[in-house]
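Teaching soon. Invent one.


***
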Amino acid sequence: MPGQLMKVTLNGTTGAAKVDAWKYEGDRSFAFPVSGEASYQRSLWKIVGKETKGEQARRHEVDAVILPEPDNKFDRNAMRVFIQGQLVGYLARDDAAEMVEEMATTPGRPLIVICRAMINGGFKAKDGSIAHLGVVLDLDFPLTD
């Protein structure tokens, strides 16, 4: 079931222009996976803090910003996922293409989406290793009815 989509304006850093974006309010199911987060573990640990002592998994809820990367040499529809200014992964290729297509069919709709995200994992395994952190988004397609 699609959530609520509201237009918002993001204030840029000093000297940067304001940018329109869409804020997605979902059902908090956090069922939409982010791809490639294994390559961004340092950034994810920076966001959630120190590694867990013991076997407890991390569950850290935050806002995520999804931005297009049209100059990506591998996928012109690539959509990056940022949390607290840190790149933490990408939407899967098919999901990114679907989002770009949906946004392109609505005149004036910006390609920037903000939604809630859950960073989870990072527990200490029985062998002493620390599990990778993963990211799931509170997002669903289509974004609107």
About this structure: Helices lie at 41-48, 93-104. Strands lie at 4-10, 19-25, 32-33, 58-68, 79-83, 86-90, 113-121, 133-137. DSSP finds two helices and eight strands in the chain. Residues 111 and 123 are 35 Å apart (CA to CA).
